[in-house]
Specification:
Two copies of one chain form a homodimer. Chain A is of the alpha/beta class. Chain A has a single domain, classed as Rossmann fold (3-Layer(aba) Sandwich), CATH 3.40.50.300. The first copy, chain A, is built from eight helices and six strands, in the order H-E-H-E-H-E-H-H-E-H-H-E-H-E. Chains A, B: It comes from Pseudaminobacter salicylatoxidans.
């Protein structure tokens, strides 16, 4: 075990006591007990959708209900979808996307798919039994203007009290960021794709 | 529905066909079929641990086994832990941390906890039935030098073939980033804590 002498231990204790005082003041400064959050996971890095599913899992762990709408991904067989099946009807899942827009190459079909996905999203947002709605890759549909930005942002702002919504995808629109409570930008520092490694089961899909 | 005329649809199709060619070339350039990845989720933003648990969920969805060691968090009751219980012994979970270092204020206890957590990590890394190991907040233990950096990095580099490891926590050490295959930096664009909102069940814990 690493050796620590008493002087060092005392110094550490004093430093951490000061740090705890700062933390406690910070916690005391927060006065809003409960708030349904509008959360945006954006940026070019990995983890936007994965973190949203991590939140979904946490909610499910508290016995709550979660709804997911996938705006872009097609009918891929993904590990998380199978895993969520363990939670039965507490997880409501709609895969509405037709695949990446460079796969379909059909703008009319893409728009129709985005509109159908949005209709499902509105259903989930208005379902009082659901506590968290994940709108996976909605940012892509907004970026390509498949959906009206103002209409989407207004609907999200007007969501019922207590409902958490997570929106994922690169290039989140400024109006959405403005409306959000929590925005995280995932930055790519290093990626195995650049080293010639293919997408890995359980990691990428 | 949004109106798209035929010229626009054709232009979109041509653009997406070019984009697909680029994507296909990129995919073709990847030649390594399978590789156990060393993944690091770092940065001040939200989602480092949550995304790691999202990956764990994906692996579980494929019927694989996952091990988690929590280096810093104490015996908190968190939603994800309850949720993972649905997967029985395919999820091996060790909460080894004593809580944040400013809560314990005891460096010797923190070091002993980090060393015990690392011993569990090595067990999981060497367990051939496990496909993904999450070392949650290991970066904190490395940052405070509770564990020897070279020893940790060497162990992670020497992991058995095919094993994926995710390390989370702020301030990842350069030597760890150097050894990693995939590094994501979570940046905080906006946080509800700054707006006076307390930690929310299902979101923060």
């Amino acid at each position: 075990m690493k050796e620590i002498d008493d002087t060092e231990a005392e110094r550490h204790k004093a430093k951490m006591a000061r740090r705890k005082a700062v933390q406690d003041a910070e916690v005391a400064g927060k006065t809003i007990e409960q708030k349904g959050l509008l959360i945006v996971n954006t940026g070019p890095g990995k983890g936007k959708t994965t973190a949203a599913f991590g939140l979904a899992l946490r909610m499910l762990g508290y016995g709550r209900r979660v709804g997911v709408v996938q705006f872009v991904k097609g009918a891929w067989h993904t590990g998380e979808k199978d895993a969520f099946a363990a939670f039965g009807d507490r997880m409501v899942w709609h895969t509405m996307g037709e695949g990446f827009t460079w796969e379909t190459q059909d703008i009319k079909r893409d728009i129709a798919a985005a509109e159908a996905a949005w209709a499902k999203a509105v259903e989930l947002i208005n379902d009082p039994t659901i506590d968290l709605v994940v709108l996976d890759e909605l940012n892509i549909a907004l970026r390509y203007e498949y959906l009206d930005l103002d209409m989407v942002v207004e609907t999200l702002k007007d969501r019922r009290e207590g409902l958490h919504v997570v929106v994922t995808g690169r290039n989140a629109k400024p109006a959405l960021i403005e409306a959000a409570d929590l925005v995280t930008e995932m930055g790519s520092v290093k990626h195995h794709f650049s080293a010639g490694v293919k997408a890995q089961q359980g990691i990428e899909f």
